[in-house]
Amino acid sequence: MITKFDYFYGGHVEMDNMGFQGLRVDDRIESDKHLASVFDEARAIAQLMDKLNFDTLWLAEHHFQREGYGGIPNIPMLSLYLAEHTEQLKFGGFFNTIPAWHPLRLAEDFAMVDILTKGRVRFGIGRGYIPREVETLGSPLEDDAANRELFEEQVEIIFKAWNEQSFAHRGIHYDLPARVLNRGQELEEITLVPRPLNLPVECWQPIFSASPRGIDFMVKHGIKGVVPGGARVDEIAAKWREAQLRSGRDTELGEGLALVLQIHIADTQEKAIQEASVWFEEQLKVLAPLGRMPTLTQEQIQATFDPGKAPLAGLPTVHDLVRGGGWICGPPAHVFEKISEIQERLPGLERVTIGAGALAIPPSAIRRDIEWFGREVLPKFPEAMATCS
Q1: Which of 6, 280, 323, 381 has the most CB atoms less than 10 A away?
Q2: Taking the domains of the chain in order of start, what are their residue ranges?
Q3: Which backbone phi and psi does 181 adopt, to 5 degrees?
Q4: Using an 8 Å Cβ cutoff, are 36 and 13 in contact?
């Protein structure tokens, strides 16, 4: 039963000249002032959500994004700022890029914000997907096995630091604490200061490939899954339930998962799809060359760079995403109907995020969608309203 509705803002700026016929991604260089506008945009989105009974605003961590597609390098810091300008809305990471951090620094930062906001933050973890970010900050990404090995050890350290009064970790990448003398004695354990106010910390991680190793790692550590909307939702939910059963937990289908959709509301479905088409084209231009569209051929990926070839390359469209269920476009009644269908298929699902990062969707359009959804769709889910009251 859905009890919480969220939004996911990836930290992009207002922009124009988008789509296949618009400005090339590598030619888009925004001013420092405009790049910094993401913080005002995030505050405006948060304050609107706070009034409309949304549960959580999720934010994405990115680095060096001069093009303006992701301008939030530190989610805990921004969460603290946003909490000071809202009353009840919570804030979380979709996702903190763990290999971009020393795990103990991230553990400290989150714990401090958890205390200062009195528990209004959520924790999300990811391995990263942009080499310019992760490799520049000193961790592997193009070597997938090395990235996963590092990530899993870092996550283990974070949980140790939060859940144990004092701890030591002797692993492949980290030897903690340092082998030094502390007041004349060999240092054997260390304590994180501060530790979070609310333990255990609820943790979320994306399920992208649905590999058995990845899912089993999440189940082992009690991590909840974030699933993108689309054709694979039911398959992933079934695999997730099977993994829970193997660990001795009998769950409902969808339990322990958050579903991420991209919703755009207009008076008609045709108008909503028409408005969303150029935004989706911009998403393809940004994400396909980064390997985020694994079903595309190399020829199709190369076509996204060429305004003449792109329309002829058989690339997916918003119509395809609507048919697959990843996007819901239309008036409020249509949106409610589609989410209700998902709720029937996944009775254990409790959390739905109605923005999938919203990459390239103007923040002004995001606010309109949030307000329309909050006033005309969310109230039709009484369990969500009761949770927020």
Answers
A1: 280
A2: 4-66+227-388
A3: -85, 140
A4: no
CA distance 88 to 22: 39
Q: Per the structure block, which two tokens stand in for 85?
A: 């300008």
Please provide the average confidence, as pLDDT, over all residues in the chain. 96
Residue 389 pLDDT > 60: no
Res. 332 pLDDT band, cuts 50 70 90 = very high
- CB-based contact 310:281 (threshold 8 Å): yes
Token pair for 268: 């008609």
Amino acid type, 103: P
Give the pTM: 0.96
Q: State the SS3 of the chain.
A: CCCEEEEEECCCCCCCCCCCCCCCHHHCCCCHHHHCHHHHHHHHHHHHHHHCCCCEEEECCCCCCCCCCCCCCCHHHHHHHHHHCCCCCEEEECCEEHHHCCHHHHHHHHHHHHHHCCCCEEEEEECCCCHHHHCCCCCCCCCHHHHHHHHHHHHHHHHHHHHCCCECEECCCCEECCCCEECCEECCCECCCCCCCCCCCCEEEECCCCCHHHHHHHHHHCCEEEEECCCCHHHHHHHHHHHHHHCCCCCCCCCCEEEECEEEECCCHHHHHHHHHHHHHHHHHHHHHHCCCCCCCHHHHHHCCCCCCHHHCCCCCHHHHHHHCCEEEECHHHHHHHHHHHHHHCCCCCEEECCCECCCCCHHHHHHHHHHHHHHCHHHCHHHHHHHC
Q: Is the Cβ–Cβ distance between 18 and 279 less than 8 Å? A: yes
Give the pLDDT confidence score for residue 388 in this predicted structure.
Answer: 57
Measured CA to CA, the distance from residue 276 to residue 58 in angstroms comes to: 21
